[in-house]
Design brief:
41% of the residues lie in helices and 13% in strands. With 313 residues, it is α+β, with helices and mostly antiparallel strands. The strands form three sheets. A five-stranded antiparallel β-sheet has the order 1-2-3-5-4, covered by helices on one side. Strands 6-8-9 form a three-stranded antiparallel β-sheet, with helices on one face. The chain has a two-stranded antiparallel sheet with strand order 7-10.
Length: 313
């Protein structure tokens, strides 16, 4: 079901078409809506992508994130223009099209490529005045949404797990580290090949980019591994590739879990909160994967989280 108002979708599509035609004298016209969610509307026309960012996005913060992406084209997909434009009260940006990860071919997922990009991002000098990475804030939003949708038997498990986290992981206090550049919302959907279809992998979506705890960017695959949703060999490949690229989020050797435990728990609670909220809204039961996330929250609530000690970088 579309969430974007008709005028916004129509005008964003027209903007994408105009930008695509300005970039090429011969345009193989073709339009598609790539994403239509409350936190982002994304449309494509030929090799141009237009994104309407979430309502309330701070213009200065977004401009800073766009500038950063433009300065590191080997890590982040650079925007076509570093200045967002306003459309129907939303900020809009334009990007070259990149080929996404194929969801029908999980064995070809670029886990090593993602890990290497993260390591390079985390080793990039942080510019002045960059805002905080928004990972904990997004997790808190998911839990707030769970509280809003109404009762569900699984909600208590998620909220108990959430309550065990330190305040910074719940966006209630400053993060313990603000010296590292982080993506803030890493998953395989945030990777594209550019130029399409066979260029190098690059990270996309700068909405949550900022300074913070780099382990947050490893937390989603770590959480999937801990919940039994990511095979151990895939997790081992991802972690090894990150370490080989000198990523600073975990020690170069030994047990990585003291650094990963709190972020992984937070991502588990966030994902479970979203799953339960969607189930309530749809009036359906949890599926097997969603139930596994709730079960993980039950386990988390009974075991205190580990707290990382600073390691040599």
């Amino acid at each position: 079901m579309n969430s974007a108002p008709g005028p916004l979708l129509a005008d964003l599509t027209a903007k994408a078409r105009a930008t695509a035609h300005a970039r090429a004298s011969a345009c193989p016209c073709g339009a598609a809506t790539l994403a239509d969610r409350p936190d982002g509307l994304v449309v494509r026309h030929a090799d141009t992508v237009a994104k309407a960012h979430p309502p309330g996005t701070d213009p200065a913060e977004l401009a800073g994130r766009l500038t950063l992406a433009g300065r590191h084209p080997g890590i982040l997909l650079p925007p076509l223009d570093p200045a967002p434009v306003a459309l129907h009260g939303r900020l809009v940006t334009f990007w070259p099209y990149g080929a996404p990860v194929d969801p029908e071919d999980p064995d070809a997922a670029p886990w090593e490529g993602a890990a290497a990009l993260l390591a390079r991002l985390h080793r990039t000098p942080t510019p002045r005045n960059l805002p905080a990475m928004r990972g904990p804030a997004k997790a808190a939003q998911a839990v707030a949404r769970l509280r809003e949708v109404g009762p569900h038997p699984a909600a208590a498990s998620v909220l108990r797990a959430w309550a065990t986290l330190p305040p910074w992981a719940r966006a209630e206090a400053r993060m313990p580290r603000t010296d590292t550049l982080c993506h803030g919302d890493l998953h395989l959907g945030q990777l594209v090949r550019h130029p399409a279809p066979a260029g190098p992998w690059l990270l996309i979506d700068v909405d949550d980019l900022g300074v913070g705890v780099p382990a947050w960017d490893l937390a989603r695959p770590a959480a999937w591994y801990a919940c039994g949703l990511l095979p151990p060999d895939v997790w081992a490949r991802f972690l090894a590739a990150y370490r080989e690229a000198s990523g600073p989020a975990v020690p170069a050797e030994g047990d990585p879990w003291p650094a990963l435990d709190v972020p992984a728990r937070a991502l588990t609670a966030q994902t479970a909160a979203r799953a339960v909220a969607k189930a309530v809204a749809a009036g359906r039961s949890l599926d097997e994967v969603e139930q596994s996330l709730v079960d993980a929250c039950d386990r988390m609530a009974t075991v205190p989280p580990q707290f990382a000690q600073e390691h040599a970088k």
